[in-house]
Write a structure and sequence with these properties.
The chain is mostly beta strands. Helix content is 0%, strand content 55%. The termini are far apart.
Length: 118
């Protein structure tokens, strides 16, 4: 099983970031598996941003705002993180990950450096 990330790397403030995680060898609909997005910055470490389960249940970090959105497509092998109206504080390495049964992450995407700069 692998997670492959793709998406925007460099954007300007107020634009939208869209990152996609493509799953090979598994599916978002696998019972009791959670699929998440996190980001890592030198100053704050790893921050969880949100999780999708079974294509329909989405959970967001309490620190998220309305500009964050997680969704999946109808193939159930891709899930996407969208951040709109980004600021330089959104600059980070973003990771998707799998968490079976809520027991912790066992599989990670390769990470995507996202830089927000004018």
């Amino acid at each position: 099983v692998q997670l492959q990330q793709s998406g925007t790397g460099l954007v300007k403030p107020s634009q939208t970031i869209s990152l996609t995680c493509t799953i090979s060898g598994d599916s978002i609909t696998t019972n009791d598996y959670y699929w998440s997005w996190s980001r890592k910055t030198p100053g704050k470490g790893l921050e969880w941003r949100g999780t999708i389960k079974h294509s329909s249940s989405v959970y967001y970090s309490p620190s998220h705002n309305s500009s964050t959105s997680i969704s999946s497509d109808t193939s159930n092998i891709q899930f996407t993180l969208q951040l709109s109206s980004v600021t330089p504080e959104d600059t980070a390495v973003y990771f998707c990950a799998r968490d079976p049964y809520g027991l912790g992450y066992d599989l990670w995407g390769q990470g995507t450096q996202v830089t927000v700069s004018s």
